[in-house]
Specification:
The protein is of the alpha/beta class. Helices cover 47% and strands 16% of the residues. The longest helix has 21 residues, at 75-95. The chain is globular. The protein starts with a strand and ends in a 10-residue tail after the last helix. The model has no long low-confidence stretch (mean pLDDT 96). The chain binds ligand T3D. The site of ligand T3D has 24 residues, from helix 2 and strand 6.
Length: 260
Amino acid sequence: MSDTVLYDHHDGVAVVTLNRPDALNALTPVMLDALGSALAMASEDVNVRAVLLTGRGRGFCAGADLAGARPDGDLADVGRVLRERYNPVVLALREMPKPVVVAVNGVAAGAGMSLAMAGDVVLAARGASFLQAFAKIGLIPDAGSTWLLPRLVGEQRARALAMLAERIDAETALRLGLVWALHDDAALPEAALVLARHLATQPTQGLALIKQALNASAGHTLREQLDLEATLQARAAGTEDFREGVAAFLGKRAPAFKGR
Ligand code: T3D
């Protein structure tokens, strides 16, 4: 794997770190491939029960690397790059069968903001900021932003954020619902690890089924969603962790979930 993405695994948590700090972790094709490989590794490893995505340096991710962009480039290329490189990464985060914590350590711009929004539980440093940078350079929000943004913040706010392309601070992101919690900049890495480690001790299959249900809900009627809930709940109820959860409750003790 390229050193533009670092991968570390301990205590059931795969820590995936974007690592081009001098360019605020702007995404190159090599880096997107490395990110895809890291997420695939985390997904397949049964010993990984939570994923933590963050960035090195003062930025989380400044979106596509514009230094490598060709203003005269073939437009079809952009579509291909999105389909082949960005979209699989966004889907890998959303469909990861384990919880994904995102620690937004600095600015999240363009597709970098899309990556942040694709997480399950998003933490941010108080000094972080968010920017739908696309319109500033004549592009439309991509890498899932037109899907994720209105669902997280509502239609009116999504339109304003996308069209005005104003950089918002972490407090505003929290108020709008882009972020679950804020931490002081220096405290964020440890807080994110603690949260990811906690999630790694939880009923992993149940959490994966929660993701599956929530991912499906946007395209479902209530009737369809009720049916899906019944199907997925039957699966959750068949896990060892469900039996352990009930036994622990009745035994008035803490559960010891194994992710099975
Ligand atoms: O084909 C495809 O790939 C299509 C996909 C498109 C998806 C997209 O993400 S499009 C949107 C691309 N991203 C942007 O437009 C954001 C561009 N960056 C900025 O607007 C600003 O840098 C930030 C608001 C993110 C941060 O501002 P600030 O003042 O904190 O930092 P800075 O001084 O602008 O940047 C620091 C360095 O990072 C600087 O390099 P230098 O001068 O120190 O050598 C800057 O050039 C570099 N950098 C920041 N963003 C990018 C970048 N280098 C390459 N690509 C970037 N996106």
